[in-house]
Amino acid sequence: MTKRVEILYKNRIYSQSGVTNKAQLRPTRRPGDGGICVRSMIRNVLTVSKDEAIITLFSGCTETNEKNIIKFINANRINSVYFFVEDVFRLYNSNTNFSLLETYPLALTPNDIRSYELDIIDRIIKKSKCKYRIFHCEKEAVILSNNYNLKIEYFDWFFLESTAINTPFNQDAVINTKISCFNLRDDWHRSIIMSLIKDFDGIFSLNNPGRTDLLINNSAVPLPRFNQFIREKIVKGHISLVELPILWDGTIDEKTGKVIEPCVSQQLDNTNIITSAFVNVITETRFASLMPNISEKTIKPMLVRRPFIMIGPVGNLALLRELGFKTFNKWWDESYDLELDHNKRIEMIYSIIKSINNMLLEELTLLLDEMESVLNHNFTQLSRVESTMTKYLK
Fold this sequence. Notes:
The protein is an alpha/beta fold. The chain is built from 17 helices and 13 strands. The longest helix is centred in the middle third of the chain and has 16 residues, at 228-243.
């Protein structure tokens, strides 16, 4: 993955990719998404003076040539820097035995958790002695900010960029299945929910479900904390997924049952398939987390005017409502959104999906008609997110 940093200074973009001391900041005439985003979405809110700069760390930027950035700040006598972290933090601790995208250790050893992106920013601030504001796409990052003695504010650059996705919508599309749920990258919450709903009336995908013994012993959403019925259903379902993967967008070898031709482009652009189902089960980037965060996964059902069920961090639905969207508590119980027990939250969500699966397609079609005003509102609100999001910059 390219570890990219961009600096906006005096309305010009300087880009740096790579991790070695040879990586250099270079002015570019064709700025990446960062330059476009700064100019089109922030210029009316952030007034950047001649002694200020905007530095953006893009997805997966766990290393960079910090000396070069500090040299740039000092050489141009930049007094103040606005830092933007475009994606979720990559976390680690003194004895890292978890994925960089997992957040459950924040609840176990909160004082020992660090972030590669914050390491970079913290060193730049200390060595350049610049004033700063840090914006990040996850809310409630107070635990991490305390570990660094830094203030972290909310601004979801990635989500805002994703709202620019444009896809055709067939107003006359007819639902022919009940549930859709797509999972390009495997994670514990994705394996668990797919193990529970794989036999429902729906269209699903789960790439590389991994080993069942690892799922059984995972620390993020521990299986022993589920009730016995759910626990046994997860294990049995996952064994089945390992033996015969579910992948609507690829080719499976008939002899081995293994995926031999997964089609990434189809997996990323699956809105037409979401349209064919009544409800989209969103498996967000993170689940066992108290830091709300939303991505393009949540935008997709809104684009094609479909309801959704959220499998994401605690408070994700509340964050969506804060951003002006409407959710579906009129039709099912959304109290799961604020349930702090991650296992119980999965059980509550599973109960909702199961009840939908038990309904007839004719009933769900009528329900879709009932939801029309909410679905249309969410579609329209996507074009208004810019003004809603930029309030966090003031």
